[in-house]
Structure formats: structure tokens, C-alpha cells
């Protein structure tokens, strides 16, 4: 475990730069109207809130967020929920949509280009270190500890890594390291990932988190921008070049992950598929969840929606409003209906005699009387008609809605409009 050093925290001299421009196409219709980082998660948050909260909780007070794909809801969320940074305290929060700043026909062409096009904005804040973050993962991490390793090791780049079973790393960028965790090769999505020295059954997979000294990063971005063969990507171009020509060091997530007392595992999830998204949300309903959202020492900040308290009404046999092993947000009304192992986001209304089980129901949905829902994701604003049954007939569900590999049913407004 890396210990905190005394004196001024390195995070105070750092800027976090969140790459939040991706669609997340494997989430199917859930990202038809919003970017993946803007997708709702955990009852009241958005996916991007985890990276942003980690930065704030780590002590970083200068943050930039690069957006591109269908960014309106993401930008609106950040304007409402993340507007508390104060320039007079040397704090800043820059939303950086692709705006053709380099040329009139050039949007962000890759993750590295999304930083390169805003070098002048970053330079105006004069950070000594840059923490580059993906905006679409669920985890809690202290970036200060990663910064300390970066400085102590003298690395040109420090790469955040997960230890995963070797053959589960085929979908990641994988680090080949020596005994001191110096990266000797960076391989993108290898069919046969290299193992960790001394633990060959495991591999080091990139988290999409990088720490640089700012001036060195600028040099690499300018060099890469001048290379016509580059794909302008950190994982595909910048990191492999530094591995070959400089010093790249792996930072293991286990050394900086944040765990409350009852959290056993080092929790990190890429909720990039419908099944992964569904399972990660339902993880939160466990009696002792793998990810603790109640940890007041490491809060997950988000837009504080002004809403009435949740309400449960009717107490008759066959018409009793209750929820068990569920997260129920403000402005929800459970009227004479049963909710089990589910997440209800803000403003969900469930009519009498309905039965909801293993459901992720996004904001301001209305579930009609007598409906039966199981193993479903209901997108925001959907109205479920009275008596509709979803999740019991896979053939019928597949004709009307999107059904995942593991049988999770996604329902959107557009799908309902076609019925």
C-alpha cells in the first residue's frame, strides 16, 4: 500500500481531464439519446459522477470534461450538479465539447486528440500534473496515491491497472511488466494476454487512467498530432510510444481503491453492456453491497434534485405498497404494489396491484395498475400500460423490446410508441 506523503498534496497541483465523449453502443437503445457517461446509475447518479467524485474526494480542484456524442443531457447534468467550483479558490470546472477549435472540419478524432485540441485551455490553469480519466466506469479510487507513485517512480506516464484473470483480459489493453511494475509492452486486446511475473495466471489490464507531468504530455500530444499514421488514441498510440521510448509504470488499483469497512472486494465495473449495467445496479440492493454508496467519507456527488420524499400507500391484503431489498429515490410513489430487489430512480410512480421484481427503472416512469415487470431496464419517461407483463415470455419480449444475452429486457419510449 502506498502511504500518503506529508506536506502539500500533489492533487492540488493536478488537473483531472475526463474523456466523456463516447456513445457506448453496447448499451443499445439506452444510449440513443445520451452519451454513456450520462446514463443513470445507482438510483440517483450518472456514470460520470464516479470519476468526478473520485477527483474531488482526492483533492483535485481543477477538472475538465471533454464531450462529443449527444452531449446535451451530460452537459446539463454537469451544469446543474457540478457548478460549485469557485475560481477565487483556484478551482475550475471546464466543459469542453468538440467545437472545431483546431480546424473547421475536425471534431475529436480520438482520446488523445480530445486533450490535444484543448492544450491552450489546460495551459491557462498551469497544472503540474495531468490525470486523464475515462468517464464511464463505476469505482472509488484515491488519485492522490497514484500521483505519489508517479512522482516517486520518476515515470513519464503512470497507467492505472486492474489485476484480472489472464484470459479475461482479452478485451482490455494489457500491460507486460517486469518485477518492479515497469511496463515493457502495452498490447491492445491481445488473444493471449501476458501474465504478471510471479503470478502468471493473472494479467494487468488498463483502466484508462493515466498520470503525466503536464509539459511531457503536451510534448507527446504535439508529436502525435504531427504523425499522419496515428489514430490519435492514448491506448493505441501515446502509451505504446512512451513504453518504447520512455518510462511507463503500472499503478495497481489495489493500492488506491477506496473501500468502506464492509466492502470486501476492490470494486470496479465497466457497465458497457446491458447485462453488466443491470447486474451492477442490482449489486447495490444486496444487504451488504459490494459497492457502498452510504460511505460518508467518500461520497458520490451528483445533481441534488429537489423532490418530495418517497411515498408508500395502501395497506390491504392484495393491495399493499411496499419495497424489499430495493433503492427508492425521492418523488417515487408505490401505490398498493410490490417492489422487490429493484432500483427506482426519481419520480417513478407504480400503480396498485402491480408487481415489480429485479427492475432498474429510470426517472419519471409511470407503471400502470396491474403491471408485472421482472428482469427489466425501463428507460426514463416510459409509461407502462395497465396490465402489461414484461419479463415472463422471452419470445413475446423479443418481438416488442430489446432482450440481452442473459434475458434482461430493455424498454424505451420509442419501443412503446411502436406497440
Automatic annotation (TrEMBL):
Alpha-D-glucose 1-phosphate binds at residues 108, 173, 188-189, 206. Residues 17-286 form the Nucleotidyl transferase domain. The keyword Nucleotidyltransferase applies. CDD domains: ADP_Glucose_PP (cd02508), LbH_G1P_AT_C (cd04651). Pathway: Glycan biosynthesis; glycogen biosynthesis. GO terms for biological process: glycogen biosynthetic process. The record marks 68, 107 as: Could play a key role in the communication between the regulatory and the substrate sites. Its EC number is 2.7.7.27. This is Glucose-1-phosphate adenylyltransferase.
Amino acid at each position: 500500500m502506498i502511504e500518503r506523503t506529508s506536506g502539500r498534496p500533489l492533487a492540488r497541483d493536478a488537473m483531472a481531464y475526463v474523456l466523456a465523449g463516447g456513445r457506448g453502443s453496447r448499451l443499445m437503445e439506452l444510449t440513443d439519446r445520451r452519451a454513456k457517461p450520462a446514463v443513470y446509475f445507482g438510483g440517483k447518479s450518472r456514470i460520470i459522477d464516479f470519476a468526478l467524485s473520485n477527483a474531488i474526494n482526492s483533492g483535485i480542484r481543477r477538472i475538465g470534461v471533454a464531450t462529443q456524442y449527444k452531449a446535451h443531457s451530460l452537459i446539463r447534468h454537469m451544469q446543474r450538479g457540478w457548478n460549485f467550483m469557485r475560481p477565487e479558490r483556484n478551482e475550475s470546472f471546464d466543459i469542453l465539447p468538440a467545437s472545431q477549435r483546431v480546424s473547421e472540419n475536425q471534431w475529436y478524432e480520438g482520446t488523445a486528440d480530445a486533450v490535444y485540441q484543448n492544450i491552450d485551455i489546460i495551459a491557462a490553469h498551469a497544472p503540474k500534473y495531468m490525470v486523464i480519466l475515462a468517464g464511464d466506469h463505476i469505482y472509488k479510487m484515491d488519485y492522490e496515491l497514484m500521483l505519489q507513485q508517479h512522482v516517486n517512480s520518476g515515470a513519464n506516464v503512470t497507467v492505472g491497472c486492474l489485476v484480472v484473470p489472464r484470459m479475461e483480459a482479452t478485451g482490455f489493453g494489457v500491460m507486460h511488466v517486469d518485477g518492479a511494475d515497469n511496463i515493457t509492452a502495452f498490447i491492445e486486446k491481445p488473444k493471449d494476454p501476458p501474465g504478471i511475473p510471479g503470478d502468471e495466471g493473472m494479467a494487468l489490464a488498463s483502466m484508462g487512467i493515466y498520470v503525466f507531468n503536464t509539459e511531457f504530455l503536451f510534448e507527446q500530444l504535439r508529436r502525435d498530432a504531427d504523425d499522419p499514421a496515428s489514430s490519435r488514441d492514448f491506448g493505441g498510440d501515446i502509451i505504446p510510444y512512451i513504453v518504447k521510448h520512455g518510462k511507463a509504470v503500472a499503478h495497481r488499483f489495489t493500492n488506491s481503491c477506496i473501500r468502506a469497512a464492509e466492502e470486501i472486494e476492490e470494486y470496479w465495473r465497466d457497465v458497457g453492456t446491458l447485462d453488466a449495467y443491470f447486474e451492477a445496479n442490482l449489486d447495490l440492493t444486496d444487504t451488504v453491497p459490494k459497492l457502498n454508496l452510504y460511505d460518508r467519507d467518500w461520497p458520490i456527488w451528483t445533481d441534488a434534485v429537489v423532490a418530495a420524499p418517497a411515498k408508500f400507500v395502501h395497506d390491504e391484503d392484495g393491495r399493499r405498497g411496499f419495497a424489499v431489498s430495493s433503492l427508492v429515490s425521492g418523488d417515487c410513489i408505490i401505490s398498493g404494489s410490490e417492489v422487490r430487489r429493484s432500483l427506482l430512480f426519481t419520480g417513478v410512480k407504480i400503480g396498485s396491484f402491480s408487481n415489480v421484481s429485479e427492475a432498474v427503472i429510470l426517472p419519471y416512469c409511470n407503471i400502470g395498475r396491474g403491471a408485472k415487470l421482472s428482469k427489466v431496464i425501463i428507460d426514463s419517461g416510459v409509461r407502462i400500460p395497465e396490465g402489461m407483463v414484461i419479463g415472463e415470455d422471452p419470445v413475446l419480449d423479443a418481438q416488442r423490446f430489446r432482450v440481452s444475452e442473459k434475458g434482461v429486457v430493455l424498454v424505451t419510449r420509442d419501443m412503446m410508441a411502436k406497440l
